[in-house]
Every structure is written in C-alpha cells, then in structure tokens.
Design brief:
By secondary structure, this protein is mainly alpha-helical. It is built from 16 helices and no strands. It has one domain: Amino acid/polyamine transporter I, CATH 1.20.1740.10. Helix 1 packs across helix 6.
C-alpha cells in the first residue's frame, strides 16, 4: 500500500448501510415539504420521476465505479472518460452541493433535538463531533451509520403506523387528486422531482468510497442497487402516508410533515419517537456526507483542482484529514451564520450537474465495461438537464454563480502555474 492510499475495509453490507444512511435522513425529513409546495399531491408523481432518473444515474455510477475503483467518484470518471474540465465540473458541483447539504442536515438535526435558541450552536457541535468520528477512520463511520439507520427505520415504522391509527386520520381515497395535480401542472411536478432528487443522491457516497471497498467491481454495483431500491420503497410508503393524512396543502404548510401526520393519529407517545428518529436520520446523513465530500475534495486536490494541502492522508487512520477538517470548518461557519432551509434547491443543482457528467461519461464506455444498456444513460442525462431547468430560479442562478467562481479559480491557477 502506498503512503497516500486509503485502506480497503468496507464490505457490501457496510457500503449499503452508508448509502441508505445518506439517503434516508435527507429525503424523509427534509424534502417532502418543499416538493409539496411545488406540486401539491403531485409530489408522488415527482417522486416516481426522481426515482427513475436516480436509477439511471445509479447504473452509470456503478458501472463507472467498477471500472475506476478509486476515491473521487464522478470527478475521477469525468476526467478519465471526458477530460479534465468535465471532471472538474462534476467534482466542484458535488463539493458545493454537498457542503450545503451538510449544513442543512446539521440544522435539521438541531431543529428536532433542541429549542430554537440552541439550534445553531447545537448544529455546529454536531458537525464537529461527526467530523471527529470520520477523522478516526472509515470503519468507525460504517459502524455508527449502521446504528443510526436502525434507529431511523424503527422511528419511521412507528410513524407510519401511528399516522394511520386515528379514526379518519388517513384517507386513501384522497390520494385520487395526485394524477389530477400532475396533469394540471407538469412544471410543478418536475420541480418537485428535482427537489426530491436531492434525497436520492446518497448512493454517490458509495462510489466516492471506492478506494476503501473490498472487491469494488462486485461490491459497488450491488451496494448501489440494494441501497437505492430499499430507499425508494421507504420513500413511497412515507409519501403515501403523509399525503393521505395531511393532503398536498397540509404537507406543504409544515416543515415537519411526518410529525404532523403522527399528531393526527391516536398514538400520543409516537411524536417524541419520530423526533428522535428524525434527529438520528439527520446525523446519519451528515456523517456520510462528511465522508463523501472529504474524499472528493481529496481527489480534486491530488490533481491540483483544489489546494494540494487538502490531499493529505493521515498516516495512522488512513483518512483525508485535511479535507475533512476544512469541510467541517466551512460547515460550522455556515450553520452559525446562514439560514439554509432553502438549500435543497441549490444542492440539487450541484448534484444534478454531477450526475449529468456521470451519464455522459458512462455513454462513452466500451461494451466490455458496460453492465447496462446505453439508453439508460441517455435517459439519465436528459433527465438531469430537465430537472435542473425546472428547479426554483433562485437556486439555478445561485448554482450558476458558484459554478462560475470554481471555473474562475481553475482558470487562474492553470494560468499561473501552467496546465490544461
């Protein structure tokens, strides 16, 4: 093993748990309310569209990860298949989008865990604590994520049962307006799909851990498919439940629709259980996000697309400790100074750009390296472009501005120090 290589310690089960932990926290407790504001009950159709595009992107990611089993994810794949600039755009989109997601998940945890006056310092403390866990090694990250996922799934099961427990608390017939909403406003449905796509992006964490997975050609594709399939089922059950209990307008009117749905039932004790599960879900997502963003940052720094200092690997714990410390510092500043409740749209912009590059890169793979029909990658690329175009305008403009900052930095450093 070279001095700057990471240790291969993760099996399929660990990789699946990290992917599930990344997706569950972001989606169930953060994305349904803004999606409902965009599409009402049509968010269920948006969820289906987001799942299809996520599956296309997952096939591209897994296929590329099997051929290039190293840290960095689509940043590396874009460089290898399409050139340095494509890789940079993917990596920069991932880093900026997921850094915003880190802050959003920290604030989500604090919102469920403590009173409003304590939320920002609590969020900062959570970032520091979980960065410390990642600093100690990736196997500790997988073990803690496994515990968090178990707590979240128990809480979700309680929430769904509690929401349906009250007399007249849920109305399946009321879901009949879903297709009517979708037909009435396809723009809103597509915008909801773009916002909900944010919740499916956790399987990227599996690919970015490619240098730490045992037998990556076999493990990564299996882990991606298993994690995504499981989460789609969970999302569908929860979405049907909150829509049946609250209706589209009710989901849009509350930042915590799952808690509101539970309160409509007859199990008074279930509310605190759901809040504990929500806090655990946000912590699980934050834990995996720190791991994934740190490793993509390291990969970019290895190629001088970010400062070389960020490429360092800890000699004992075998983690990109400089990248993770820098990320934690940025996120702490964000949670202490910025309101990121609307960061989902900005995060979706960056992540969809990331997967656009993934799909285009996968289209160029040779038949011997392909595991899925090329048509899936074409559909995924088109889907990414459509969903970006239908995101809230402010999210698109902010994303373009930050993207321009990254491009300007790369142009400046290449002009100063040479290179392509």
């Amino acid at each position: 093993m070279a001095a700057d290589d990471l240790a291969r310690r993760l099996g399929t089960g660990d990789a699946v748990v990290i992917g599930v932990g990344s997706m569950i926290g972001a989606g169930v407790f953060a994305a349904f309310a803004p999606a409902a504001a965009a599409a009402g009950a049509g968010l269920l159709v948006g969820l289906l569209i987001a799942a299809v595009i996520a599956y296309c992107n997952a096939t591209a990611t897994a296929q590329l990860a099997a051929q290039y089993p190293t840290s960095g994810g689509v940043y590396v794949y874009g460089r290898e298949r399409l050139g340095e600039w494509s890789g940079f755009l993917a990596g920069w989109g991932f880093v900026i989008g997921k850094t915003a997601s880190c802050a959003a998940m920290a604030l989500t945890f604090a919102a469920y865990a403590v009173p409003s006056d304590w939320q920002r310092p609590t969020a900062a403390a959570a970032v520091i604590a979980l960065a410390a866990v990642n600093y100690r090694g990736i196997t500790r990250t997988a073990r803690l994520t496994r515990v968090i996922v178990a707590v979240v799934l128990v809480a979700l099961a309680v929430a769904v049962l509690a929401a349906w427990s009250g007399p007249g608390s849920a109305d399946v017939v009321g879901l009949s307006d879903v297709l009517d909403d979708a037909r009435a406003d396809w723009y809103g449905v597509l915008q909801a799909a773009g916002l909900l796509f944010f919740a499916f992006a956790g399987y990227a964490r599996i690919a970015t851990l490619g240098e730490e997975v045992r037998d990556p050609a076999r493990t990564i594709p299996r882990a991606v498919a298993l994690a995504l399939g499981f989460v789609v089922v969970v999302y569908a059950v929860v979405a049907v439940t909150v829509l049946a209990v609250l209706g589209g307008d009710g989901v849009a009117d509350t930042p915590v629709p799952l808690v509101a749905a539970v309160d409509a039932g007859s199990w008074d004790w279930a509310g605190p259980v759901v809040r504990v599960g929500a806090a655990a879900a946000a912590l699980g997502a934050l834990l995996a996000l720190v791991a994934g963003v740190g490793r993509t940052t390291m990969a970019m720094a290895r190629n001088d697309d970010l400062p070389r200092w960020l490429a360092a690997v800890h000699p004992r714990h075998r983690v990109p400790h400089h990248a993770e410390v820098a990320l934690a510092a940025v996120v702490v500043v964000a949670v202490l100074t910025v309101d990121l409740r609307e960061a989902i749209g900005f995060s979706s912009f960056g992540v969809l750009l990331y997967y656009l590059v993934a799909n285009v890169a996968a289209i160029t793979q040779q038949r011997s390296d392909r595991r899925h029909p090329r048509a899936l990658q074409v559909l995924g690329a088109v889907g990414c472009v459509v969903l970006v175009a239908t995101l809230p305008p402010l999210s698109v403009l902010t994303g373009l501005a930050v993207l321009a900052v990254g491009i300007a930095y790369r142009l400046l450093t290449r002009r100063t120090f040479g290179g392509s």
